[in-house]
Specification:
disordered C terminus, mainly alpha, 226 residues, single chain, 3 domains
Amino acid sequence: MQSWTALRSYFISLGEECPRQIRALLMLSEVSTEENADNVEVYLLFSNNILSLFEDVVKKLENDSTTCVELYSIMSTFKQKLTQRDDQFYGYLTKVKLQHLLPHDADRARRDFTEFLNTAISYIEKWFDNWLVSLQPLSLHHGMFSFSDTEIITNKLNLIQKVSMDEVYDECTTANSILKGLREGADDEWKSKDVAARWVALFQEANLPNMLSIIRIEMGLWCLLV
């Protein structure tokens, strides 16, 4: 965006040699006016602000350390950030530029921005599996998990016949005791660890064969999803 004025001047200087698609996008095919330049710039400012949210979530999803137990948190946070834009805040620079447009141009831009966001939100709602919310406790973000959460996860992964639920109950009790010690006095450090590192730290302290089986399958599920 810092080079916008220079880039626009460059494409204008190309005249008829400027590619048709670029002329249309930057409104160079019409009589070039400052008003047209402002109308184009407000869309570029919106894109610069909103697409940074998309870039951020893509980087998180493509990160080698990300697991499926974190998917719900990542995507729900992303959806929330898009949804909260119903207050028509699209970045401060976009807000300022909208105030300098003619009223009908500003209203049209806001409608286009709203349509874009609604389309993105609808796409997330259509294709994102909310059942992944049940896997969140396995992230160990809060340093503990309950037997009831583990039971739900075990059912979701169809493992109820493959592990001993009585032993799982005991393992949950043991794990929570150990996790409390691991987090004590180092909560920030614990939360900065990735999911795999948290489980490695736990398994180094205790033999938890049933939980290990569940985690192995969960990690295998992530391989299938990506």
